[in-house]
Amino acid sequence: MATRTSAAGAACPACGSCxxxxxxxxxxxxxxxxxxGRRVVVRLRVRRFRCDAPTCSRTTFVEQVAGLTCPYxxxxxxxxxxxxxxxxxxxxxxxxxxxxxxxxxRCGARWRARWGARWREWCGA
Length: 125
Ligand SMILES: [Zn+2]
Prior knowledge:
By secondary structure, this protein is of the alpha+beta class. It contains three helices and six strands, in the order E-E-E-E-E-E-H-H-H.
């Protein structure tokens, strides 16, 4: 999916002043949450603006799209929240399974091989 922003300007992340002076532009590829089991990649044309505030240390900055992009991120905010929810659910299952069986066994063993010290920290083992 190819798209671009339509706002006339963007706010500088350092000083907050709004700028409409475009310095340059480039395309970003952002992976979004899957739709109907298909991977979604957004090709977003973003602009780099000049900050004209005399006291600002930032000379240029790239516009961000709320809810879609973050600086240097390659995943959309939506995909990030989906992955976080999945990770928390999986971590909860391992923790509950370990407590129910009096110690992490089959599923825990797989996680232990992969996560090592972090697994022990989560499960308290
Ligand atoms: Zn600024």
